[in-house]
Amino acid sequence: MTNDLLFDFTVDKAAKTVFITREFDAELSLVWDAFTKAEILDQWVAPKPWTSRTKHMNFEVGGRRFYAMVSPEGQERWAIQKYTSISPKTNFKLFNTFADKDENPELPGSDWDYTFSEQNGKTTVRVTIFNESLARMEKMIEMGFKEGFTVTLNQLTNVLTMLKK
After folding, report:
1. Is the pTM of this model over 0.90?
2. Distance CA 158, CA 48 (A)
3. Which of the chain's ends, N or C, has fewer CB atoms near its CB within 10 Å?
């Protein structure tokens, strides 16, 4: 693993927004696939020892990913991601909200904006997460979002290394 890769996590309470920038030592097409294909997402998106299980995913504007993060004891925490904009290999946006097992959303949610760029074989992913309320964002941070998301991005680094072989 390359240790000189960029990672930044910034919280802007006034804007109710979290900004994450992470660089990966992999080509853009592979990183794009890791964020847009269920079979790869399920390998890294839940912080261990939790796992991710996608029930269904339709990566197109208006499409959805419905998935659970599953604890070692079998507890499921479901979420819906509704894709609102897709510009292949450069950007996609989604609305993310927790849900019950029957796909009933637990509002409020948050708007996520992913931007991808590549330079010299390294891909930078910028994630902007806008929350409709400061209270929701503070709750997300309090629940360990920064730590959990950092762990998942490190897991993605490992998955990308395996996929490159």
Report:
1. yes
2. 13
3. C
